[in-house]
Amino acid sequence: MLTVKNENNHGVEELLKNKMNELSESVDCFDRISARAFPEEDEDFSESGFTISDLENVTGKARRIRVVRWIAAAVAVVCIAVIPQTNFANNILSNIGSGSVRKNYENLISEINSETQNGDYLISDYPLNYYIQNDVLVTPLFVCPFEDCGKEDANVRIYTRQINGFNTNQVYAVEYIGTYSEENIIAAAQSEYTFSAEDITYAEQYSTDDFNSYSDCSYAIVQNFSTDSDGLFIDDDGDSLSLASFVNFTLIKYDGGIIPVSSEILYGHKTMSDDSYFYDIISTSENKKIQINEREKSWKKSVYFNDNTAMPKENHSIFTKKNLFNGDLSEQDNELMFIFSFKTDYRPEKNEIINVYSEASDIQLSSIIVPYDDFALSSTRLYFSSLALDGDTRIIVKSNKQSQSVHYFDTVTIISDEELEYQKYTEELIKKEEARIYEEQNKLGSAE
Question: 239 near 270, Cβ under 8 Å?
């Protein structure tokens, strides 16, 4: 807040306070952003931002300094009262005072614009709160680079460089309010990795055959979890678990070179508690396990429009890292079954829960969130033990949001509940007709 320590200027002080209050009510995410943009400990006209924490009349100071300060305050009032909420307004506010230049943010926005106009990028948008909570499902190799601003209409746009259709670990992200436009951007982030023209030419040699096929998750499940009398996965406390996995193929800048990396993400949670998940990631290249950069260290910078950091101090993801890929996975017995794969035209909703049942016993085998990304979903496996089927060969999978049922054995097919009921009705009619024909044939045989 702008304060004026001068009793003779009480009216000016009230004017500045009122204008700042109006700004805090109208600017999206102001409460959180102001904590970054206007830190209390900063001195007047801070070098790190555009903070003006005090305007004092001090006896003996040059009149010229007082005039400059009051001009700066007046300009701030004009900006607050008149200039609309755009990057232009942010430019003026952030450059009040000496040394306040937003080089990092402005250069980063310029780089994003240049890269996305001239390069091949996959662009995806997510609500900020969804990304924060489900970062493992969105960017498995990166945490969310933005803190929670407390606004429901805050969103994130992610730009992932692609080469020959494969994602790389050169990633950008921007946080914006409401509908996407450059004027609505309030923060930007950049990954630690950049592909040069030479890197791109080298990476273009890789194809699908260069990525390892994944199979370690099944072994890790058998190694880490047991089953109860109903054949359900359980943890050490005896609580039933739901488990799933998906794969991430990425061309990664690694140890001075570029390599194709297959990352398997195994995750799960206690079935009766949907608000907390555990996960682990194993990455391999050329059939060898490799240690890639930690997710928390994959971002180079994340800054607000005034160059103050936008990186969260704490990770508020509902996914917690757990060591699941340990020991010699290849020596584990594997008698698991899994649902794979979803139809290519199936599009889940964000936070959609998939429920898996054994049709014969009506036992719930799994209840778990699935990735929203097309490629991640296409490689998603929903695991269950063969012991839970008790000889049954039919699985029912239902969504908690789309009022659809999935009939499965080898592949998952999405059909409506009405279609499922009609299918069952048709099957019953066929069985009755077959029984009638069989009975008539027996009668004819007896008569002969």
Answer: yes
